[in-house]
Design a protein that fits this description.
Structural class: alpha/beta
Distance between the termini: 68 Å
Shape: elongated
Radius of gyration: 35 Å
Helix content: 55-70%
CATH topology of the largest domain: ABC transporter transmembrane region fold
């Protein structure tokens, strides 16, 4: 928790105001019983109406001052803690943006979402209460005890008896609550994971008729969280009656013994009333601290989870002295590249060596699990090689800044990801400064103009989240247009033709060959028809490069490639 307090530093003026205003509010609340006592003993009993009026007006002024202090303290406390939450969420988001895929896999997307929202909110609420209670509760308790003892030392023995009893009762209840609060955040993670999987895979769920199963799975996670939350709130519900019972019994004892002292003339009525107010303030201070302590385990658990994210360093960072961006044509070279996934016993790629040159289309083909997408993910440094090196224009990609490297790439992922916004905004995601004409040209090359023109608003048509209002092939073509809008030197197409029909596939490849004459183009594909016209074809099998050459050369020299071709094309087509 202490590490997160630094995010309050920009709002230290507001924090200081909250502390000062809370001090004013607390002092006014402690002073009011004394005024009330003097009004009763001096004004009412003696019948001095002028004194009652003067002291009453002064009491009203103190009340207004305390109320104003409370309102302003709440206002500035809210501004400070809201700003704290904003800065913390921003810091988490920016830190996560530098994560490699390894860190995302390590924590999990669902957990990152919960940590960035729910966990930050828990810490924010705790700090808001802490700013008020750290001054109010100790000052009220200590000041109340001093003033109560000064009012009547013998009656203060009631406090000596009651406070330990109340503290023990609160501790017994809260001891169980700590463990429950720690487990709540994990159960929130689980619920979010189940919900996210269901919503993301809703088509698969419905296609296989697994809605009842998913409902049961959600109900189980929801019920688990609900049961834990109910047990926590039951403990909190038990605490309040116990505290109120102790407080009311204390009041009975004070009135009883105070009444005896009034009868003997050793205590005045006003002092008894003031003493009761002091005791009430002391007990409410203890109650406020106990309520704040109820938030400690959950806030602490959230703070630990947030710190885990902030303390997690990306597997690799930019070099301290990065080499300047090479201004070459965009040659990509793999030299003896071997790669292991984190925790993997066998390499996903083993001793892969090849060169992809400008002006050529280099295609990669192989069976499922051959390592094609892994190879493609190493070029933008989504992962780093375990052995060997990847060079762009003769410079190792690990010696460049990641932003500089990726600025030279036009990347089309295996799963076409689109963002909420218009068609034009999605294409301009590749180049925010692209003109409308440039975006339209990119759409033409990607064969997306046909279906875009059929939309009611054309390039301004809205794309739903994830592009769910488009077909798979339409999403892939827009993803290609986004990459083409960048006008990069190196283009990476990671199985981005899979949802296209054969005619569109052929049209896109023909347009790419005309458009990207000077660029380095790498294509991963499952279909032989997509790669057979490439200038250079790489064949992967179980992470190893088992063949390289043109279609005709591989048909004669690579049995793996010949087997793939035979499984997809007739002898006439393969020739």
């Amino acid at each position: 928790m202490a590490k997160l307090i630094e995010f309050l530093r920009p709002y230290r003026a507001f924090v200081a105001l909250v502390l000062v205003l809370t001090f004013v509010q607390t002092m006014s609340s402690l002073y009011l019983p004394n005024l009330m006592s003097s009004i009763v003993d001096t004004g009412i009993i003696r019948g001095d109406e002028g004194y009652i009026l003067r002291e009453g007006l002064w009491m009203l002024a103190v009340t207004v001052l305390g109320g104003a202090g409370s309102v302003l303290a709440s206002y500035y406390g809210a501004k400070a803690t809201a700003g704290f939450g904003k800065l913390l969420r921003t810091r988490i988001f920016r830190h996560v943006e530098h994560f490699t895929l390894k860190e995302f896999d390590q924590i999990g997307t669902s957990s990152l979402i919960v940590r960035s929202t729910n966990d930050v909110m828990q810490v924010q609420q705790f700090i808001n209460m802490l700013l008020r209670m750290m001054v109010m509760a100790p000052l009220t308790a200590i000041g109340g005890i001093i003033l109560a003892v000064r009012t009547d030392a013998s009656l203060s023995l009631v406090i000596v008896v009651v406070l330990p009893i109340m503290s023990i009762a609160i501790w017994l209840v809260m001891r169980r609550g700590f463990d429950l609060f720690r487990s709540i955040q994990k159960k929130v993670d689980r619920l979010n994971l189940v919900l996210r999987e269901n919503l993301t895979g809703v088509r698969v769920v419905r296609a296989f008729g697994r809605v009842p199963y998913e409902v049961r799975r959600f109900d189980a996670a929801n019920l688990d969280l609900t049961d834990t939350s109910v047990r926590v709130f039951q403990l909190m519900a038990i605490l309040m009656p116990i505290v109120m019972l102790i407080m009311n019994l204390a009041m009975v004892a004070i009135v009883w013994f105070g009444g005896v002292q009034i009868n003997t003339g050793t205590l005045e009525l006003g002092n008894l009333m003031a003493f009761i107010q002091y005791v009430m303030q002391i007990m409410f201070a203890v109650l406020m601290v106990s309520m704040m302590l109820f938030m400690v385990p959950r806030a602490q658990a959230s703070a630990v989870r947030i710190n885990e994210v902030l303390a997690l360093e990306p597997e690799f960072r930019d070099p301290d002295d990065p080499l300047p961006v090479p201004r070459g044509p965009g040659t990509v070279e793999f030299r003896g590249v071997t790669f292991y996934y984190p925790g993997g016993e066998e390499p996903a790629l083993h001793d892969v060596t090849f060169t992809a040159r400008p002006g050529q289309i280099t295609a990669v083909i192989g069976g499922t699990g051959a390592g094609k997408s892994t190879l493609m993910n190493l070029i933008p440094r989504f992962y780093d090689v375990s052995e060997g090196s990847i060079l762009v224009d003769g410079v190792d990609v690990r010696k460049m800044r990641q932003a500089d490297l990726r600025q030279r790439l036009g990347y089309v992922p295996q799963k076409a990801v689109l963002f909420t916004g218009s068609v034009l905004e999605n294409i301009r995601y590749g180049d925010p400064g692209a003109s409308l004409a440039a975006a339209q040209h990119a759409a033409d090359v990607a064969q997306a103009s046909e279906f875009v023109s059929e939309m009611e608003e054309g390039m301004e048509a809205e794309i739903s989240q994830g592009g769910v209002n488009l077909s798979g092939g339409q999403r892939q073509r827009l993803a290609m247009a986004r990459a083409l809008a960048r006008r990069a030197e190196i283009y990476l197409f990671d199985d981005s033709f899979s949802a296209l029909d054969f005619r569109t596939d052929a049209l896109v490849r023909a347009a790419l060959r005309r458009e990207l004459t000077g660029a380095t183009v790498m294509i991963i594909a499952q279909r032989v028809s997509t790669v057979m016209d490439a200038d250079h074809i790489l064949v992967l099998d179980d992470g190893r490069l088992v063949g390289a050459g043109t279609h005709r050369e591989l048909m004669a020299s690579c049995p793996v490639y010949a087997e793939i071709v035979a499984s997809q094309l007739s002898p006439e087509e393969s020739a």
